[in-house]
Amino acid sequence: PLLGGLLAVVAVRAALAWATEVNAVRGGVGAKAQLRAAVLEAVVALGPSGRSGSGSGGDVALLGGGLDALDGYFARYLPQLIATAVTTPILVGVVLIADPLSALFLIVTLPLIPVFMILIGWATQAVQKRQWDRLQALASGFVDTVGGLATLKIFGRAERQSARIRALTEEYRVHTMKVLRVTFVSGFVLELAGSLSVALVAVSIGLRLVDGSLALAVGLFVLVLAPDVFLPVRQVGAEFHAAADGVQAADAAFSVIERASLLPAASPAPEARGALELRRVAVDDGAGRVLAPVDATFAPGTITAVVGASGSGKSTLLGVLADVVPSSGTVLLGGKPVAARSGREWLAWAGQRADLLPGTVGSNTALGARSADADRLDRALRLDVDRRVDAEGTGLSGGQSARVAVARAVHRLLERGGAVLALDEPTAALDDESERRLLAGLRSLADEGAIVIVATHRPATIAAADAVLALSPAEAVLR
């Protein structure tokens, strides 16, 4: 009967351990999915202007391997913490019933381990933070290098960047070993504290066995239980260090979510009708003025060329219109103020970079559209819509990539019935004939009532405009 009971206890314990691990893993997967969705939503809400200093590479590191490191936190650390909170008081209570003096030693020495854990946690927090920062720097550097690989090869700087990536990788490896060193030392401290506490109980039991004040059976029973009293607490410390990377990633995730929560609430967009007005719209990044105050009115049916020297704020102005650059001042459409995060349904924007994805010309043109309409694609684009495109526009010339970016903005304008088309240097990589055709297309859109704003250096584009907004570090003049 005793053997059967022992086997039953072992089976029940194994089943409970399995059920605990399965539920912990399932809960961890759900929690990670919710946190990842919240971070992704926050990154989208923050936009490019609110991106962390590590850029898109840091965001990828956070959303990928960073949050995946929470597996150890949810699947092992939290279950172990709960098990410790339940089993340790029970074991201490059993020892208290069997031998109050040994229980007193356990109660006095047991808090030493959590105290050591807290002290070690304070010491390792800065180390873990630096480790996470290095991981984000490595991810950001790798993404930037891959994105500019073609340019680096052209100018013979690929080896220099490869050496930089190797240096960052080596630095990350060295720092990882430092983190592991701290982890092993902290584990040794916890094991030493637990072993000394058990030794203290064992000495007490031995002395009382010698003088006959304690029965042998009771002494052996307490001596067997004493290590199990400290074992759950030591395991909590070990699992905490194993999950430290995930905890650091979670802190970074909550930081992103908190920054997004501080943004003003999204407002409904005004009706896409009437003139676009800018009143004292300016941008200051804290280190100096980026865009001088702009007072301008853009009438429907007109093309306005935004000109100025490099660094005068042409791209910044279009970024303000696209709601990706924080600014001061007021933007009005049809006489109604346009609030931040209002959706910008009335605006179609194309930047200097096409940012093409693998697929076809047609799929890249309709990227982000609610539906891909063949007539809109044909009107927006004069390239073969079925032509294959690789990552970063490989397979197209620079001018063709620029035309795809413009066509994407035109497709969005036509699909949503927008009022404003904003283009950043759309003709910079075009030959004269392609530029002429593009300007004819923009004129056609303007004749239908669209407000077309083009940042440019090209004389032909400036000559085709109805108005010119000249930017300088001191002022903005519309003529």
Automatic annotation (TrEMBL):
- Its domain of life reads Bacteria
GO term, biological process aspect, one: cysteine transport
Q: Which GO terms describe its molecular function?
A: ABC-type transporter activity; ATP binding; ATP hydrolysis activity
Q: Which residues form the ABC transmembrane type-1 domain?
A: 1-245
Q: Where in the cell is it found?
A: Cell membrane
User: Topology with regard to the membrane?
Assistant: Multi-pass membrane protein
Residue spans crossing the bilayer: 77-97, 104-123, 135-156, 182-207, 213-231
Gene3D superfamilies reported in the protein's UniProt record: ABC transporter type 1, transmembrane domain, P-loop containing nucleotide triphosphate hydrolases
Its keywords, alphabetically, are: ATP-binding, Membrane, Nucleotide-binding, Transmembrane, Transmembrane helix
Keyword Ubl conjugation included in the entry's annotation: no
Q: Look up keyword Protease and say if it applies.
A: no
InterPro entries per UniProt? AAA+_ATPase, ABC1_TM_dom, ABC1_TM_sf, ABC_transporter-like_ATP-bd, ABC_transporter-like_CS, ABC_transptr_CydD, P-loop_NTPase, Type_1_exporter
Q: Where this protein primarily resides, as one coarse class?
A: membrane
* GO cellular component term of the entry, any: plasma membrane
Domain (ABC transporter) ranges: 276-479
Which Pfam family is an annotated match for this chain, by its short name?
Answer: ABC_membrane
PANTHER family, sorted: ATP-BINDING CASSETTE SUB-FAMILY B (PTHR24221), COMPONENT LINKED WITH THE ASSEMBLY OF CYTOCHROME' TRANSPORT TRANSMEMBRANE ATP-BINDING PROTEIN ABC TRANSPORTER CYDD-RELATED (PTHR24221:SF590)
Q: What is this protein called?
A: Thiol reductant ABC exporter subunit CydD
Query: Which species expresses this protein natively?
Result: Rathayibacter rubneri
Q: Give the gene name.
A: cydD
